[in-house]
Amino acid sequence: MKGWMGKTKVLFVFTLLAFLLAGCGIENLTALEPKGYGADRAMDLILLTTLIMVGVFVVVMVIYVITLVRFRRKKGQEDHIPEQVEGNHKLEVIWTVIPIILVLIIAVPTVLVTFDLADDSSADELTNVNVKGNQYWWHFEYPGEEVQTSQDLYIPTGERVYLHMLSSDVIHSFWVPSISGKMDVNTENVNTMYIEAYEEGVYWGKCAELCGPSHSLMDFKVIAVSPEEYDQWVEDMQNTDAEAEPETAEAQEGQELFEANNCMNCHAIDAAASGIEAGPENNGPIGPNLSNFGDRSRVAGVLEPDHENLTDWLMDPESIKPGNHMTGQYPELSEEEAERIADYLMQLQPSEITPESAGE
Ligand code: HEC
Ligand SMILES: [Cu+2]
Asked: Is 246 helix (H, G, I), strand (E, B) or coil?
């Protein structure tokens, strides 16, 4: 008996812990602390439905307990058959109408929010971004600004940014839990959604559709900066110079190795969007745009952005993201060569506006 009690206690403690820990996810990667318009509306709906569900649960439990206590078989009444209510008109109406009303209370605001979030009437005046989902990375192109980048999506705070999303391979799903809803990224039709971050910050994004072995590593970041900083970032990106000569001898050597090892077949060092056709219909680049690689918040979306991690990635991307489309597509690099290329890529820092300046 005692052992059984002990086990229950342990189970109880672990259950409690699980509930507590569920609350301490990564900041800016939780829908429960909304920091943008879409996430706020989703939170309203979460609260409304939770409230109704808890209400239903409580009412059902109260009736259940009352029934258990009041209608127990009592001593001396063993043969008593209680009143039979099968086919009772009043009861049937009550338990049909109440759920319908509850469903309506949930459905009406949900449909309203869905239409609100799909509203693109002011898209022409505001920032638009063509989002391209690829196994296992994200490409972002700003047709109005003629700028493109990958992995880190820069947006101005306090205004809507319209995303036009398409996939180059399989179905992905774009989700930045703390600021937006979730939207499928399909191969044939462009899905549109707007996002809006209230405050500056680095918000974590995830691919939310199983898309292959490295699906869970298909991370990206939304970097929200003030509108002035955003304009500055756009200007800096418009002025990136792919041919610029690096300052150090190591980085220069890296630049030559970059050119000699097929890297250019898949990676652009220029942020100007003129090289590829604007618009979500184009097939997009084969690999991430590296023009501001030194300012990235991560290497390949997942690793801390340092020289060592980058060298590791260049030498063996497969061990970091299984099934990625870079593995085996370039000549094998020695550690020395990978380090020189890392020197080169890390100094590609065209802007002062970076994830750090947004508060990462
Ligand atoms: C066949 C096309 C291809 C070739 C050739 C190629 N890459 Fe890549 N590269 C990719 C793809 C695709 C990814 C995205 C991988 C992922 O995250 O799933 C990538 C990712 C990267 C990243 C991480 C980018 C980021 O945004 O974090 C770096 C850095 C990189 N490649 C450098 C290189 C270098 C240096 C070379 C040459 C030695 C090279 N690549 C050759 C396709 C290629
Ligand atoms: Cu995906």
From this structure: coil
pLDDT the model gives residue 278: 45
Global pTM value:
0.88
Q: So where are the chain's domains?
A: 127-346
The answer, yes or no, to whether any atom of ligand 1 lies below 6 A from the CB of 319, is no
Q: What does 28-76 look like in DSSP terms, one character per residue? A: TS-TTS--BHHHHHHHHHHHHHHHHHHHHHHHHHHHHHHHHHHTPPPTT
Length of the chain equals 360
Closest-approaching ligand to the CA atom of 185? 2
Q: Residue 274 and residue 289: Cα distance in Å, rounded?
A: 13
CA of 259 to the centre of ligand 1 (A): 13
Query: Which residues, in sequence order, are CB contacts of 281 under 8 Å at separation 6+?
Result: 166, 190
- Name the least confident of 6-10, 103-107, 328-332: 6-10
pLDDT in tens, 283-329: 678 899 999 999 999 999 999 999 999 999 999 999 999 999 999 99
The tally of CA atoms less than 13 A away on the side-chain side of residue 328 is 7
**What homologous superfamily does CATH list for 127-346?**
Cupredoxins -  blue copper proteins (2.60.40.420)
Ligand 1 atom at minimum distance from 136 CA:
18
150 lines ligand 1 (CB under 6 A): yes
State if residue 220 touches ligand 1 by the CB under 6 angstroms criterion: no
